[in-house]
From TrEMBL:
The gene is adk. InterPro entries: Adenyl_kin_sub (IPR006259), Adenylat/UMP-CMP_kin (IPR000850), Adenylat_kinase_CS (IPR033690), Adenylate_kinase_lid-dom (IPR007862), ADK_active_lid_dom_sf (IPR036193), P-loop_NTPase (IPR027417). PROSITE patterns: ADENYLATE_KINASE. CDD domains: ADK. This is Adenylate kinase. It comes from Sphingomonas oryzagri.
Length: 215
């Protein structure tokens, strides 16, 4: 099964993708995570992407579609993919169809996380991850069981994303409205879109997604 999780910054795409990876053995293909890894490694792609990401704008379609094609090629052919943060433009949506066709895959669902943007700023500026294992936390919604200690690996070091400040978040949301939301009709015409209330708590959002995906 191949699915897209679509929604603005902070909608919960990464949170739900993590869960699907653990519970269904699917592979999360997050262009944001892959770009951040390229920035950290100082690759040519990372060097091109860094300033654009820090400003909250979109990296070029060619770069991200190339990354997705390479990531699919590195996966077993029978493993399902969760596209998290991709596609984000009409050109990327068309590229994804070509990329999937060329690999004998098809898209099964596009899950739109419907959210109240005003509340997302709090979600984003409050989130942080373990610097060691990447487990995600939030100042209000998801704290470690023991303060200052990662539940998963026991590390005491945490980090925040440089683009998770309010000003950049507002730019990222404007990019979503201008460039990503308009691709929904492309998938609605293919009868692939299911809407989920992304403002419900994390478990309820997960249950709603499971109901769409089935067993
Ligand atoms: P990317 O990394 O994709 O960031 P994003 O889309 O802005 O999404 P986020 O990761 O911020 O949010 P999310 O929906 O995953 O929310 P999360 O689950 O973490 O992209 C970053 C940048 O990379 C872009 O700005 C761009 O420059 C570039 N880029 C990436 N892909 C690109 C592409 N295809 N084309 C061009 N450029 C690209 O949840 C947020 C917080 O809320 C967490 O703390 C979580 O615990 C909490 N939370 C989640 N769900 C709930 C809930 N239901 N209730 C309460 N709290 C919740």
């Amino acid at each position: 099964m191949n699915i897209i999780l679509l929604g603005p910054p902070g909608a919960g795409k990464g949170t739900q993708a993590d869960r699907l990876v653990k519970e269904r053995g699917m592979k999360q293909l997050s262009t944001g995570d892959m770009l951040r890894a390229a920035v950290k490694a100082g690759t040519p792609t990372g060097l091109k992407a860094k300033a654009v990401m820090d400003a909250g704008q979109l990296v070029s379609d060619e770069i991200v579609s190339g990354i997705i094609g390479d990531a699919l090629d590195a996966m077993p052919a029978d493993q399902g993919a969760i596209f998290d943060g991709y596609p984000r433009t009409q050109a990327q949506a068309v590229s994804l169809d070509e990329i999937l066709d060329a690999r004998g895959r098809k898209l099964d669902h596009v899950i739109e996380l419907v959210v109240d943007e005003d509340k997302l700023v709090e979600r984003i500026v409050g989130r942080y991850t373990c610097a060691n294992c990447g487990a995600g936390y939030h100042d209000t919604f998801k704290q470690p069981k023991v303060a200052g200690t990662c539940d998963v690996c026991g590390s005491h070091e945490f980090k925040r994303r440089p683009d998770d400040n309010e000003e950049t978040v507002r730019t990222r949301m404007a990019e979503y409205r201008a460039k990503t939301q308009p691709i929904l009709p492309y998938y609605e015409a293919k009868d692939l879109v299911a809407k989920v209330d992304g403002m419900a708590d994390i478990d309820h959002v997960g249950a709603a997604i499971d109901a769409i995906l089935g067993e």
